[in-house]
Amino acid sequence: MKLSTLVTNVFLALGLAATAHAQWISLPLPDTPRTKDGKPNLTAPAPRASDGHPDLSGIWISVRQGTNPTGRGLERYMTPGSKAPMLPAAEKFYAEITAHGDAADPSERCLPDGVPNHMLPLPIKIVQNPKVTLMLFEEFTVFRQIFTDGRKLPVDPQPTWFGYSVAHWEQNTFVVESAGFNDKTYIDGEGLPHSEDLQITERYRRPDFGHLVIEFTFTDPKNYSRPWTATVPFNLMPDTELNEHLCENEKDLVNMYRK
After folding, report:
1. Rounded CA gap, 243 and 190, in Å?
2. CB-based burial, 33-64: b 16+ in 10 Å, e otherwise
3. Extents of the domains making up the chain
4. What pLDDT, on the 0 to 100 scale, is given for residue 163?
5. Closest CA to 140 of 160, 165, 115, 122
6. What does pTM read for this prediction?
7. 81 in helix, strand or coil?
8. What is the pLDDT of residues 3-57, one digit of tens each?
């Protein structure tokens, strides 16, 4: 279970406020379209960048509900009835590490959770620029770079926690290709495994000001019989900024329980 999820569950158990806007500052931002009563107009048209493409910039948080009632983790966001097509060895591994609940995420040791797991459930901030799009993660205050300067993915990369990402536009869809991940993370918070051969294609669409949809397609022949896709909706968090979220080590949880 993600450290952030565990902390949230503890707060819920203690009866403390757990609503999103109780945790983040509120400041009216000048570029936010508004309704007549001054509230953010989340159904206003999506903003456009100087090149005419949708501007994905903003602070986003994933929508927890999925449409697949039988799925867990990212499987919730697959077609109803679908499951990640794990190979037998991956199924065995998954069953073993989830036998007593969710798999232990790297975040429990203050390490990044990789893509897309680290994008869930705390907010992410997208900063779109002509040659590189930045993804700033509230969890652990770390970042990801998505290059749009024409470079290709490295042929034999040194594996990293967030991999290497390049992107291009297909009309109004931002298409990100990523590879070069290490095998120290899971695809989601439930423990779906992956190898260093994992490749991810992300397709970002912003239908209006307040909503973002990311379609993730995973290809990993060592763990899955075919590529598979999950589509995750995100909501904009308007008129706010990211919090500083640091993790010293696993003693953070011990200190929390002592208070």
Report:
1. 25
2. eeeeeeebbeeeebeeeeeebbebbbbbbbee
3. 3-258
4. 98
5. 122
6. 0.88
7. coil
8. 555 444 433 333 333 333 347 899 999 999 999 999 999 999 999 999 999 999 9
Residue 108 Cα distances to 124, 135, 144, 217, angstroms: 19, 21, 20, 26
Structure tokens, 100:
């007593």
Please give the Cα distance from 45 to 240 (Å, whole number). Answer: 20
Distances (CA, A) of 34 to 21, 45, 61, 210, 234: 18, 12, 20, 11, 20
Phi, psi of 46 (to 5 degrees): -65, 140
Q: Give the number of other CB atoms < 10 A from CB of residue 234.
A: 23
pLDDT digits over 173-232, tens only?
Answer: 999 999 999 999 999 999 999 999 999 999 999 999 999 999 999 999 999 999 999 999
Tokens of 196: 């260093």
Both structure tokens of 150:
């024409």
